[in-house]
């Protein structure tokens, strides 16, 4: 008889999935005494080596580390990766996606945006063209590592352009129109 599998979620941050880490999980399982048929609880700490680039749904199996019932082989314990939500990034395969808020002046005039990375760097990303609605800036090799190849995906930046709260005065609107007259 094939032993059953017991699935347990392994909640990981995007940073842990980016860099890899070792997680320790304390598990309590039931083991059977073959002679008497009695069962007793046993506590054990398992080390789970998390590989950089693992994705949601990755399964890590510990053979025979689940419950053991009299006359049956011990169940397998399977940890299933669940990615915790991140305040800045979402993941799309090996790409990271972020939406940044920028003022309309930066959208029109360019400049740089500072983007925090998952390994505690700050990426200074230049904006060298007009940022229009739907514009996406690609930063090569700044996404998640692929767990098999180690090659990193891309960072895809999207923009939420912030407009002034107050409408421009007639004079300000005239100045703006004059500045933008030959830019279309």
TrEMBL record:
Domain named Chaperone DnaJ C-terminal: residues: 6-164
InterPro entries the record matches: DnaJ_C (IPR002939), DnaJ_subfamily_B (IPR051339), HSP40/DnaJ_pept-bd (IPR008971)
Name under which the protein is recorded: Chaperone DnaJ C-terminal domain-containing protein
Pfam families, A to Z: DnaJ_C
CDD domains: DnaJ_C (cd10747)
Record keywords, A-Z: Chaperone
Stored SUPFAM superfamilies: HSP40/DnaJ peptide-binding domain (SSF49493)
RNA-binding found in the keyword field: no
An annotated GO cellular component: cytosol
PANTHER family xref list: DNAJ HOMOLOG SUBFAMILY B MEMBER 5, DNAJ HOMOLOG SUBFAMILY C MEMBER
Superkingdom per UniProt: Eukaryota
Source species of the chain: Chlorella ohadii
Keyword Chaperone: yes
Gene Ontology MF annotations: protein-folding chaperone binding; unfolded protein binding
Region forming the signal peptide: none
Alphabetical GO biological process terms: protein folding
């Amino acid at each position: 008889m094939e032993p059953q599998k017991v699935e347990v979620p392994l909640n990981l941050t995007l940073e842990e999935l980016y860099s890899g880490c070792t997680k320790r999980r304390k598990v309590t399982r039931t083991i059977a005494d073959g002679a008497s048929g009695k069962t007793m609880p046993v506590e054990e700490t398992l080390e789970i080596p998390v590989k950089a680039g693992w994705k949601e749904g990755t399964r890590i199996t510990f053979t025979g580390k689940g419950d053991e019932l009299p006359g049956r082989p011990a169940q397998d314990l399977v940890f299933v990766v669940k990615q915790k939500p991140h305040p800045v990034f979402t993941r799309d395969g090996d790409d990271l996606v972020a939406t940044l808020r920028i003022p309309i002046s930066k959208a029109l005039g360019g400049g740089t945006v500072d983007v925090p990375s998952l390994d505690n760097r700050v990426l200074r990303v230049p904006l060298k063209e007009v940022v229009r609605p739907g514009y996406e800036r690609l930063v090569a090799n700044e996404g998640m590592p692929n767990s098999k190849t180690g090659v990193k995906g891309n960072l895809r930046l999207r923009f939420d352009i912030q407009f002034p709260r107050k409408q421009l005065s007639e004079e300000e609107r005239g100045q703006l129109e004059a500045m933008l007259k030959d830019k279309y």
